[in-house]
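Practice problem 4.
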C-alpha cells in the first residue's frame, strides 16, 4: 500500500481511545509530523517530552515527531527509549507541558502509535484528541528565529527507579532475597525492571530481556499462552514468583510460586489489598473491572468510583481527587504518588516486597472469587445504539441498579452484566460476572435473550 498525501478528511478520527494508532502505511512520518505540530500547538508550544519503544518504525516516527514539535516552537526533551511508566513519571519530574510516547503497547510489531499525555500527566482521550485534530489545518509554524530545540535527557530510568525505591521496603527484600523470573517481552521493561528488582534486593532471572521491536520471544500481550515459558521457568527454577509485562511496560501480570498465572484484574485487586491496608481513600476503576475490586475497597471502608473504559478516563478521574489507587481490568495499576498513569514497574516491585511476608498463592487466596464470561454480537452503528438503548430501557423499567457511563452495566445482587459498543470494531460486547461460572453463564444467557441475540 502506498503512502498517500494527507487529505483534510484524514485528520478526523485520528485519535482513538488512547492516542493515534496505525500500521506504518497509516501512521507514516508525514502524518506523525503534522499531528505533532498540532499537539505542540495544543500544549502552547511548550516543553514536550518524547520517548519511544523498540519498534522498528520507532526511530523514523521519532524524528518526524521531534521535527513537528520543534517546527511550532516546542522545546523537545528526548528520552530516547523508555518504558511508558518511566516517560509518564518524567512529566511531573521535568515539569513538562506534555509528552508523546511512540509506542503501540501490546499490539503486534507492525503497529505503532503516538500516545499523548498532558502536563498534569493525563493521557489525551478521544474527545480531547478531536480538539487537536481540529487544529491540524491551521498550523502556524514558528518563525525561523523561534523554532524549537532538542535536548537529550538520559537519566529517566535513574529517576524512576529512585522514586520507586522510596515506596518500597527494600530491607525485608534484602533479608529474604526472593527469586523472581522476569519476562520483559523484548520490550521496554527490559530497560528498567531487571535493574530495579535487583537493586531492591531480589534475585532476578530474565527471559526476553533484549529490546527487539520484532518481539521475537513472544507476542507483546502478556496473556497466559504468551507467557507460558515464564510460567514453566518459575517452576523449573523453584522461584518465588514470575512477572511479565506488555511491550511498553505499563501493564503487568504475575505468576505465583507454583507457576500459576495471575490475570491482570487480580493483579489490581492484590495491589488494593496491599495498599488499602495502609492508606484509606477512594479507589478508581473502569466499569469492566471485576467486582472483586469493589469488594476489597468496601471491606476497607473505601468507596469505588467507576469510569469509562480506557486509560485517559482513569487518569482524568485520578486527577480530580485524592484517590488511593486506580486500576484497569487488564493489569494496569495507577500509583498516584508516582504518576497518574499505569505503572507496571512499581506494581512489580510492590509484589516482590509482599511475597517476603507470605507466598503469592496465599495472597491470591484473599481475592474474592468471581467468574466471568464474555461474548460479542456483530453490530453496525445503528445496531450498537439499539442494543445499548434496549439494555438501558430494561434497567430503567425494572428499577435495576445500573451505570450508563460507558455502555450499560447492570449490578445484580449476585453479579453484574455489561453491554457496551466497541469503539473500534463492529461489535457490541457483553460481559457477565458472578460468584460461580454457572451463574455467570446464566446471567449472560438471560441478557442475550433480552437483547434478542440468543
Ligand atoms: Mg501498555
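Answer key:
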Amino acid at each position: 500500500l502506498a503512502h498517500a498525501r494527507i487529505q483534510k478528511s484524514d485528520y478526523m478520527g485520528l485519535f482513538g481511545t488512547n492516542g493515534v494508532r496505525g500500521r506504518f502505511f497509516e501512521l507514516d512520518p508525514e502524518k506523525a509530523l503534522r499531528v505533532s505540530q498540532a499537539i505542540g500547538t495544543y500544549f502552547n508550544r511548550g516543553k514536550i517530552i518524547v520517548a519511544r519503544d523498540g519498534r522498528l518504525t520507532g526511530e523514523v516516527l521519532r524524528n518526524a515527531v521531534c521535527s513537528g514539535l520543534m517546527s511550532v516552537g516546542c522545546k523537545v526533551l528526548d528520552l530516547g527509549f523508555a518504558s511508558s511508566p518511566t516517560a509518564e513519571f518524567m512529566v511531573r519530574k521535568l515539569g513538562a507541558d506534555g509528552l508523546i510516547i511512540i509506542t503501540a503497547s501490546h499490539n503486534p510489531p507492525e503497529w505503532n502509535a503516538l500516545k499523548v499525555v498532558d502536563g498534569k500527566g493525563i493521557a489525551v482521550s478521544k474527545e480531547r484528541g478531536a480538539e487537536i485534530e481540529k487544529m491540524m489545518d491551521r498550523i502556524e509554524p514558528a518563525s525561523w528565529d523561534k523554532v524549537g530545540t532538542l535536548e537529550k535527557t538520559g537519566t529517566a530510568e535513574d529517576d524512576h527507579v529512585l522514586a520507586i525505591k522510596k515506596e518500597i521496603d527494600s530491607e525485608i527484600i534484602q533479608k529474604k532475597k526472593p527469586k523472581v523470573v522476569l519476562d520483559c517481552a523484548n520490550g521496554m521493561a527490559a530497560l528498567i525492571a531487571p535493574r530495579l528488582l535487583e537493586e531492591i534486593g531480589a534475585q532476578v532471572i530474565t527471559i526476553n530481556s533484549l529490546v527487539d521491536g520484532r518481539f521475537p520471544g513472544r507476542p507483546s500481550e502478556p496473556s497466559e499462552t504468551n507467557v507460558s515459558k515464564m510460567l514453566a521457568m518459575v517452576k523449573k527454577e523453584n522461584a518465588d514468583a514470575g512477572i511479565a509485562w506488555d511491550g511498553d511496560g505499563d501493564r503487568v501480570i504475575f505468576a505465583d510460586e507454583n507457576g500459576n498465572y495471575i490475570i491482570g484484574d487480580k493483579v489490581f485487586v492484590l495491589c488494593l489489598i496491599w495498599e488499602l491496608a495502609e492508606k484509606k481513600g477512594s479507589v478508581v476503576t473502569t466499569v469492566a473491572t471485576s467486582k472483586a475490586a469493589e469488594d476489597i475497597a468496601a471491606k476497607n471502608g473505601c468507596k469505588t468510583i467507576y469510569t469509562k473504559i480506557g486509560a485517559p478516563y482513569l487518569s482524568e478521574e485520578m486527577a480530580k481527587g485524592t484517590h488511593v489507587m486506580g486500576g484497569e481490568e487488564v493489569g494496569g495499576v495507577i500509583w498516584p504518588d508516582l504518576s497518574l498513569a499505569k505503572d507496571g514497574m512499581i506494581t512489580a516491585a510492590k509484589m516482590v516486597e509482599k511475597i517476603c511476608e507470605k507466598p503469592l498463592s496465599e495472597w491470591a487466596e484473599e481475592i474474592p472469587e468471581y467468574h466471568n464470561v464474555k461474548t460479542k454480537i456483530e453490530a453496525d452503528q445503528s445496531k450498537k445504539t439499539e442494543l445499548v438503548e434496549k439494555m438501558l430501557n430494561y434497567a430503567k423499567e425494572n428499577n435495576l441498579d445500573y451505570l450508563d457511563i460507558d455502555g450499560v452495566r447492570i449490578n445484580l445482587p449476585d453479579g453484574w452484566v455489561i453491554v457496551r459498543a466497541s469503539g473500534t470494531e463492529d461489535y457490541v460486547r457483553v460481559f457477565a460476572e458472578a460468584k460461580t461460572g454457572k451463574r455467570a453463564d446464566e446471567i449472560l444467557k438471560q441478557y442475550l435473550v433480552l437483547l434478542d441475540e440468543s
